Amino acid sequence: MAPSFTDFTDSKFHPINLLEQIIISKNWVFERPIEDEIYIEVPTKYSNLIIQVTWLKNNGRIEIRSFFYNKMDFSNNIEIYKLLNLINNRISYGHFIINENNYPTFKNSILVKDSNNVKFDLLKDVLNYAILESERFFPMLQLVLWGGKKAEEAILFFDFKTEGKA
After folding, report:
1. Which of 47, 67, 89, 122 has the fewest CB atoms within 10 Å, i.e. the most exposed one?
2. Quick check: is 165 in a domain?
3. What b/e sequence results for 31-52 when a residue is b if at least 16 CB atoms lie within 10 Å of its CB, and e otherwise?
4. Which three-class secondary structure state does DSSP give residue 139?
């Protein structure tokens, strides 16, 4: 038997409305082209991150995609695919893909069985997780794309941590 989801079509619940509150509180630029979708531009230490959040109410899912906008075609670089595979084997929630515009993209989603369980803090945490994961792996992507490194070399930075200050 297939899982059943609450029918949200007549509900006043809308997660994008909650997200707008988060975005406004952070002073981030955003655009909401349709009711069930929002694009957010988040400044990070590397570049501006674009986050697309889509409310798929028919199957009770909130989908989040985040990518750094770059004017490069990543699709022909086999090392990027190898790196994304290595990264995906190391993270526990979400995954990286090459999106339809050929950008490395972090993608995750949450299932919403009951709209009462989707709270401001949950959406804030999911949004922050997408930002953190995108920022964490961006240097590895740079090593492959612009540094000419192999995926196996770039992934060594996954667990690299520094202590102290220079």
Report:
1. 89
2. no
3. ebeeebebebebeeeeeebbbb
4. helix
CATH number at residue 21: 3.30.1460.70
- Residue 124: inside a domain, yes or no? yes
Euclidean distance between CA atoms 8 and 5, whole angstroms = 9
Q: Higher model confidence: residue 18 or residue 113?
A: 18
Task: Kindly state whether residue 6 falls inside one of the protein's structural domains.
Answer: no
Range list of β-strands (E), the chain? 29-34, 37-43, 48-56, 61-68, 95-98, 104-111
3-state helix, strand and coil shares in percent for the chain, rounded to the nearest 5: 35, 25, 35
What is the number of structural domains in the chain? Answer: 1
Residues 76, 102: contact at Cβ < 8 Å? no
Q: What is the pLDDT of residues 92-120, one digit of tens each?
A: 899 999 888 888 899 999 988 776 667 88
119 vs 160 pLDDT, higher one: 119
pLDDT at 10: 42
For the stretch 20-52, pLDDT in tens is: 999 999 999 999 999 999 999 999 988 899 999
Burial (CB count within 10 angstroms: exposed 0-12, middle 13-18, buried 19+), residue 100: exposed
